[in-house]
Amino acid sequence: MQPPRGPSSSVTDNAARQAALLGAFGRHFGSPTANSRRVRIIRAPGRVNLIGEHTDYNDGFVFPMAIEPQALIACRSRDDGLVRLASTAFEGPLVEFSVQRRIESGEPGWANYSRGVAQQLVSAGIPLCGMDAVIDSSVPVGGGLSSSAAIEVATGLALLTLAGLDMDPQRLALVCQQAEHFFAGVPCGIMDQTIVAAGRAGHAMLLDCRDLSKQYIPVDGRELQVVIINSMVRHALTGGEYAERREQCNAGVRHFNQGNPGVTTLRDVSLETLRAAEDVLPAVVYRRCRHVVTEIARTTRAAALLLQNDYDELGRLMLQSHESLRGDFEVSTPELDLLVAEAMTVRGVYGARMTGAGFGGCVIAVVQPRAVEPLRHHILKVYPEKTGVTPDIYVTTATAGASVLE
Length: 406
Fold this sequence. Notes:
- By secondary structure, the chain is α+β, with helices and mostly antiparallel strands.
- Helices cover 41% and strands 20% of the residues.
- A hairpin with a 5-residue loop joins strand 7 and strand 8.
- Helix 3 packs across helix 5 (191-198).
- Residues 303-381 form the GHMP kinase C-terminal domain.
């Protein structure tokens, strides 16, 4: 996949993807114009997290923004309750299930994100109709940019749109989170689905994962560009490492709760309280907790710095976040560490860090606009030389959350 090089190329690419998507719809379900029912196109963006990793399920703060890579669904309603799905990324027969019966997870696995959302909506008493749909996505799978959340939110919005229904974006995000828990087996926090459903163009979102309150912080593209570098090392959150770290955080909470019943998550633990327990907590639990407690503080500070246009200090916090994720939370990889180190050798790069749950995926860098091409050139030269792998690079603005295109 070639990275977008600016707004005009992104618009051209999106138009081409929509045309190809409608072509795929026609091949699977007949011409989009051959039926009196309108074919709708739904989009849901991926996301990148500026800072605030593994804080969402600890009731902390996160600071994501919606990005230009996106999931698209072309869909048309049916009266019989049957849902038929195809994907441009996977060959094989159509996936079929009915919203009039209980929906179970199954094969192929890619369809479980859509199955799960449909089942959660049905369980909530939402009256759905059937649909024919083709899914296309430019969000890289396993890159830590929320490809699953994009599919979930797009599916939910497609089903609601065809049924003539509206839903508050935050409620839709919660529905999609439950789908990921029960159908994909990933105990994710609420960040991904929230920013995908409720992002605002030109803004990052400071999200309080305890009460779901939001503050939108402007990202001025004339002063600051966001560059995402995909290490091409894929991560799978169902592999156990993610759940293991959640449990280690929970172990810390259980310790502090014994002395203070008001502690229900690591959000309630101060750094001073944590440091006082260093000798009694298991070393690995202490390090996991230290990352979360300090990362929550870094995240709220980063939002304030972005609001003040203090990009130098924001960059320093991002580097501190990466070091904490590497050392205390142990979710980085040699490839991610290499990308961060090499990015920081380019003049005009304020800061860089791994983004997403870790174990592979992407690095995010915040840079001066003039530094975008030097950074791209340097990474495309050095990273293949040292790893034998060519990375994907995306330059993105902050986009809006999920929407109906037509």
